[in-house]
Amino acid sequence: MDYLYPIFIIQMAGKSKKIKILFTIPNFDTAGSGKALFKIASGLDREVFEPHIACLHNRGEYFKVIQKSGIPVHVFEFTSSVRPVLKGLYQCWRKSRFFLHHGFHLVHSFHYGPDYSEPLAAKIAGVKWGFTKKNMNWGGASKNGWKIRSYLADFIALQNSDMKNEFYPDTKKTFYVPRGVDTAEFFKAAEDKDLKQELGLDKDTKVVLNVANMVPVKGLEVLIRAFKNIVYHKVVLILVGDNRNEYGRSLENLVRELGLENRVIFTGKTLNVKRFLSIADLFVLPTLNEGRKEGSPVAMLEAMASGVPVIGTKIPGVKDQLKKFPDAQVDAGDISSLAARIDQYLFSDRDWRLKFSDQLCSEVQECFDLKREIKRHEQMYIDTLKPTNK
């Protein structure tokens, strides 16, 4: 390990001499955040840390994966309403007994909402508590909840550098912990010719790819309109993600309106993104600069690690990942600029693409590798548990 085992940890952990961490998340129905949590929990140094996981129910296919991992899983109501106040405090006290019973030293929440009953329970139990800020959502009805949640936290993991300036300019309990990808899983791979054949594409057809949870903030209508305006003709746009919702149906309608039925492919949800990355000539992330925006988009990192040239919008999270590649960024919502940049990439020569591909792979390996993300978490936990930490 890169750090010495601090003596205060040995003293506080007692006979086990391990830091017991409880990771909490509402569910594993949608696997994005669940996978991120699991990769961190399962990657921790087991000589130092003992991870546990808690969620609100046992539904979802990915829950079965967690169960088989060997990490203790608790199905437990770790959140509750704080109104009315007396009833809310009683519920927090009940949850605090759970934390104490299992002897957790620290609780790390992957909850995506502004709940603050969980940190109140941790405070009652005298257990360190913190959370990962996963997107740029803050205002509106949830603003006070986020403020209280942040005030009660002992640590806050920030997934991009803009979060510090925008939300926490004066606090010392934040840690910059961007997402990472497993470079043993995502790397330059041979083209999946069978997939191209399944999709009815010949060997000369180029592929522009997007992988996303299909919600309006992702700006996929901008990408579709930009695709309509590109000059390069022998190319298809592949949209990977669950399109069985209102937004997905609106995108399908837009494709029909623009006459792009033969050039835009909706794949639906898939667990094997690597197959599509292997045939991609370009990956585009057109997220809008509004609402929750992005935290640290892992789909972009997976494309970069796979050596696929990328274009992203100039928004928080993406700016961190493409900091060394300003030409790979366009203004969010700018259809004409995005179309021009797509054409530039598609018409570029092979040597340029190979060089850019190598640069992207190196950037992920040096700055956004999963092992680096895990080490950042481990150091955050150690620093949070130091007696002098404030």
UniProtKB/TrEMBL annotation:
Q: Which domain of life is it from?
A: Bacteria
User: Could you tell me which Pfam families the record lists for this protein?
Assistant: Glycos_transf_1
Annotated organism of origin: Marinilabilia salmonicolor
Name of the protein described by the UniProt record: Glycosyltransferase involved in cell wall biosynthesis
What sequence ranges are listed for the domain Glycosyl transferase family? 193-346
Could you tell me which SUPFAM superfamilies the record lists for this protein? UDP-Glycosyltransferase/glycogen phosphorylase
What keywords are assigned to this protein? Transferase
Tell me the PANTHER family matching this sequence: GLYCOSYLTRANSFERASE (PTHR12526:SF630)
- For this protein, what is any one GO molecular function term? glycosyltransferase activity
Coiled coil start-end: none
